[in-house]
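From the pipeline queue, job 12 of 40. The input is one protein chain; the requested action is below.

Action: predict structure.
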Amino acid sequence: MLQYQVERLKDIYDDLRPLLDMHWEDVALDQETVHLNPNSALYRTADDTGALHITTARVEDGELVGYAIYLLSSNAHYKQLAVADGDIFWLHPDHRKGMAGVRLLRKAEEFLIARGVHKILNKVKLHKDVGIVFERLGYTPIERVYAKTVG
């Protein structure tokens, strides 16, 4: 059984880094030209200022096997809204059984609500579309993002 909790980046970075590599291999496009290189300073600043929220999933022995990471801010258009913008979420394939992923997302939502968040945004990759999971959790699709690599 997985355990879900809120953790700080500064406390889990060494555990998190190997999972980020596996996550990148699992879902990233353009891997031959765009290599994983997280802006650690940006994430650490967000962690230090309270603008980073991480819900983790760990097995009973404490091994980190998943996460849902959000950047917190007020909305640029509606400053009264405290927004949690989903950065990344991932669960190790060995633990994608039953409702484990759904429980991770529900716990993240619960923790975010406790922090005073009004709106939670989550993104899905079209080539690994799990939008149906979010819809079943009560989320509504609101926009599509287009990307173009230049230069």
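Job complete. The first strand starts at residue 3 and ends at 6.
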